[in-house]
Amino acid sequence: MAAGLRAVRRWGQVAAAPPSLAFTRSAFVVKKANNAQPNWLGVGLAFGTSAALWALLLKQHSEDVIEYERRKQARGHKCTEHKCS
Amino acid sequence: MAFLPDESRSLPPPPLLNKGSVWLGFAGWMSALMDNAFNQRPILGAGIHRQILFATLGCFVGYQLVKRAEYMHAKVDRELFEYIRHHPLDFQASTG
After folding, report:
1. Does the keyword Repeat apply (chain B) (predicted)?
2. What b/e sequence results for B9-34 when a residue is b if at least 16 CB atoms lie within 10 Å of its CB, and e otherwise?
């Protein structure tokens, strides 16, 4: 058994790269997070996505308001003909 | 059924900051703060981009959900008033 353990240790020293488990959070694989250096790609993506979402939300809201007013106008003409209860 | 059918656009759109969007935006911001706390970062000062992103996502999802909720309520109200209109005898004010 000791010989087997020595063999495993030898293999560990030769192939020192961590296993390629890309999506694992195992403590043997993950690197310690370095919060001192910003992940600029992540920061840029987050800000870009936020800006895009706000733009989409504001655009959709103004489109909703315009569409509602338009339909109210159309319905206003219809309702004066005593068709609505 | 679609999330927001076309006839939902006949309803007045809710204001941008309504109870749903504000609450879910706040919840998103809180989850960003909690993420800071769990990863032992300064709670308010760290990850501003994350806080903004989560709050924005919350506002966006909250706005869509409030629109759908208002549509469902309006639909039920319309069916209710149609039923009342079709059954006037059941809904007469009690005169006797």
Report:
1. no
2. bebebbeeebebbbebbebbbebbbe
Q: Using CB atoms, which residue from A49, A68, A85 is nearest to B11?
A: A68
Residues of A in contact with B46 (CB under 8 A): 35
Structure-block tokens of residue A68 = 């509602």
Instruction: Give the residue carrying structure tokens 């209710």.
Output: B80
The ranges assigned to domains in chain A are 59-84
**Residues of B in Cβ contact (< 8 Å) with A36:** none
Average pLDDT per consecutive 10 residues, chain B (96 residues; last block may be shorter): 87 93 96 93 92 96 95 96 93 73
Q: Residue A35 and residue B41: Cβ atoms within 8 Å?
A: yes
pLDDT at residue A79 tops 90:
no
